[in-house]
TrEMBL record:
Residues 50-320 form the Amidase domain. GO terms for molecular function: catalytic activity. Pfam families: Amidase. It comes from Neoroseomonas soli. Residues 152-175 are annotated as: Disordered. This is Amidase. Residues 154-167 have a biased composition (Polar residues).
């Protein structure tokens, strides 16, 4: 078993830059390889060995992992290979290499949350999501880097395409590992975009499910009404299969029943209408990215999809207006709800936590229950505005 402390990356660590080509990504989908398992031309063990080879080659430059156990992964892949040879796989994810964000408990590997308070700490149990995936036959390859308690100091992880750039956070390691082709599925968490942001930065697929739709048991709590379990994958099919494996075996966070649907992704269907949102980040976006986004929207429109935006639809304009002040009240929600556990971590010693945690606690100290209630009300208004599009559009387009 190899343990990798979360420390700043060495200045002499390898560096690389790979031009991103969406037709030739670094991603390695397990679902795309399953036909070979059934035919006997390949196996989950062979698929895992290819992922391990990528890990050994790329990890020095990317630093996605906190700990991994390659021997245990190989044993699990061998068991999955035997089941596929017998024509009796446990599920579509039987043998799938999975990485787990280091905010999520695992019985066999430490959960350290990128903070010295938890250095070497073992939960002695699997989180609901990890247990469900193991029961479905998935292969847990290792634990991946998180920002401090999923809200503070960053770890050493770098972007798999350009190591001079960030992988995004807080599910940094899971997104980078999947994005680099080290694994096909990564468990992340999301409180403020912590799954979809790094997934986007690292060129992967991701799901932030509806609140409560995937069980968060064994996920270190940060903000109870914001915390989600997130899924990062090498393909839409991998994300779907992983999410459904968890939902079928662990359900949602009570009292939510959990995601419902078929075990594998259905055939795709073209959208009819999409809503284009600028959001706050548009003002910070360089011209090159704006141009690329506009070209993508144009291609979708030419393909026959109707695009609604703030210029041609009053409800979209109203939604954009509600999003304009989201930064203030969303941070209020996070600060108020995370007072515990962040205050408990700080109680171990002020130097044991980073500046971002001190800032959140200071913000919470300035708040009262009325201000928290106002933030909750603002969220309900935004949810209602989004819900208006359920019958009008198939989804949203944004950076």
């Amino acid at each position: 078993m190899t343990f990798l402390p979360v420390v700043p990356l060495r200045e002499d660590a390898p560096r690389h830059r790979i031009a991103y080509d969406p037709t030739r990504p670094l991603l390695r989908s397990f679902s795309a390889a399953r036909a070979g398992f059934s035919a006997g031309s390949s196996s989950p063990r062979e698929f895992l060995e290819s992922r391990i080879a990528t890990l050994i080659e790329q990890e020095p430059a990317i630093a996605a992992f906190v700990a991994y156990d390659l021997d245990a992964a190989r044993r699990a892949a061998d068991a999955a290979s035997a089941r596929w040879r017998a024509g009796q796989p446990l599920s579509p994810v039987d043998g799938m290499p999975v990485v787990v964000k280091d905010m999520i408990e695992t019985a066999d590997l430490p959960t350290q949350m990128n903070n010295p308070i938890y250095a070497g700490w073992h939960a002695r149990r699997d989180a609901a999501s990890v247990l469900a995936l193991r029961d479905a036959g998935a292969v847990v390859l290792g634990k991946t880097v998180t920002t401090e308690f999923a809200c503070g100091n960053s770890g050493p992880t770098r972007n798999p395409y350009d190591t001079s750039r960030t992988p995004g956070g807080s599910s940094s390691g899971s997104a980078a590992a999947v994005g680099a082709g080290m694994a096909s599925l990564g468990l992340g968490t999301q409180t403020h975009a912590s799954t979809i942001r790094p997934a986007g930065y690292c060129g992967t697929y991701a799901l932030k499910p509806s609140f409560g739709a995937l069980h968060v048991g064994g996920l270190a709590q940060l903000a109870p009404t914001l915390d989600h379990l997130g899924i990062i994958g090498a393909s839409l099919e991998d994300v779907w299969a992983g999410a459904m494996a968890i939902a079928r075996r662990a359900g949602g966070t009570p009292p939510h029943p959990g995601l419902a649907g078929p075990e594998e992704a259905p055939s795709p269907a073209a959208p009819r209408v999409l809503v284009r949102l600028g959001t706050l980040g548009w003002m910070e976006t360089p011209d090159t990215s704006r141009t690329a986004f506009e070209e993508a929207v144009s291609r979708i429109s030419v393909a026959g999809v109707r695009i609604l935006d703030a210029d041609n639809d009053a409800e979209v304009a109203a939604l954009e207006a509600l999003l304009a002040d989201i930064g203030d009240w969303a941070t209020d929600l996070l600060a108020w709800e995370s007072r515990w556990p962040l205050a408990a971590y700080r109680a171990q010693g002020a130097a044991m936590v980073g500046a971002r945690i001190h800032d959140l606690l200071a913000r919470a100290a300035e708040m009262d229950a009325a201000r928290y209630a106002a933030a909750l009300a603002a969220r309900e208004r935004l949810r209602a505005a989004v819900a208006c599009f359920a019958s009008r559009a198939d989804g949203f387009l944004l950076l």
